[in-house]
Each structure stands twice: as C-alpha cells, then as structure tokens.
Amino acid sequence: MPHKKLGSLALLLTAFAGTTVIAPLGVKADDAVRVNRAVGYLNDGVGTSEVRENCTWNERLVEYLVRDARGKVKVTDEDLDKIPGKTLKLVVVAMHTSGGAAFSGPKWIKIRGELRENGMVINNFEKSSHSAVDPFRWTGCSVLVKMSKQMGEYTAKWLERPQNIVDVEEDSDNLPPAAK
C-alpha cells in the first residue's frame, strides 16, 4: 500500500506534467462520477427556445455541482451512455420561465438525475427549485442561475448518499438525513 505522502507527491507531479487533476487527495480521478458540461433538456417543449439557446444556467448548475462535490464529480464531453464507470445524467424535465425576472411572475425548474454505473441506473432523483421575488435579478436567465446554484448544491449532497427520491412537494428538501 503506497504511503500517503508518496500519493501526494504523485498527484503534485502529475499536475506539473500538464495533466489537470481535480480530485482531492484520497479520491482517484477514475473514481469520480462523470457528468456532461451542461444539463440537457428532456425535449423542445421544456422551456422556451430563448432560454434553451441563450441562457447558460444549465452549464452553471454543473459548475456548482463540481465545486460542491469537491472532486467527486468530473466534467466530460463524452456521451455518458458510452463510457464505463459511474456517470450522472441530468435532464430538465419541466420549466416555467416567463421573461423578465421577478416582475413577470415565479419561475421554476425540475430536473431528473440518474446515477449510473456501467450504463445501469443505480439511483435517481427528481428535484424542483422555485424562485422567490429578488429585486437584484433583472432577467429570467439570472433567476435561473440563482436556482442552478441551489440545484448544484442539492445534487452534490445527494451524491454523498444517493437514494431514489421523487420530489413530491413543490419545494421540499428530500435529502437523506446524514447528507443534510
């Protein structure tokens, strides 16, 4: 069994050799759950074309997830259905985003996450996030970015102890007790 200091040295040398390592010590990069760079949409009926084409909230959600998972999640551009190991497929299944931030009414998103191992679904969740009036958000996209932060945090916590969870309450926090 390698000594911890030698593992740290190998990690440091790998970083200097030009390889980007996002996994913290103790987590091998190969053990990381892989996720796509942006959350996909279930179909063209989810959200407006303007939101799907111009808002980057779904990329920001993944950035928050990667940050909050502290190296346990790695971004990939590969097709998740074709890579071995653990993957997390995130999809927007419902969305309401009337334009104009707080002044045009509430916004909400609902995502589905499927944790897979070698292509087989081993756990999944559905989670909703709802906006509140925020006078500092001037566009619908900025409200979605705020909600994406909440969703990224939730998903990182869910990955600590993944369970099959369906969001039955509008804004519930259905995390397993140890993950809160």
Overview of the molecule:
The chain has helices at 4-16, 49-54, 57-68, 140-160; strands spanning 33-36, 40-41, 73-76, 86-96, 108-117, 120-130. Residues 1-27 and 170-180 have low confidence and may be disordered. A hairpin with a 2-residue loop joins strand 5 and strand 6 (120-130). The chain has four helices and six strands. The protein has 180 residues and is of the alpha/beta class. Strands 1, 2, 3, 4, 5 and 6 form a six-stranded mixed β-sheet that branches. The longest helix is centred in the C-terminal third of the chain and has 21 residues, at 140-160. The chain folds into two domains: 1-26, no CATH class; 32-167, Rossmann fold.
**DSSP summary: helix tally:** 4
Mean of pLDDT: 78
Q: Portion of residues in helices?
A: 25-40%
According to CATH, what is the topology of the largest domain? Rossmann fold
Overall geometry = globular
Query: Main β-sheet: number of strands, strand sense, barrel status?
Result: 6 strands, mixed
Oligomeric state of the chains present here: single chain
CATH class of the largest domain: Alpha Beta
User: Which percent band covers the strand fraction?
Assistant: 15-25%
Structural class: alpha/beta
Under the CATH scheme, the architecture of the largest domain is: 3-Layer(aba) Sandwich
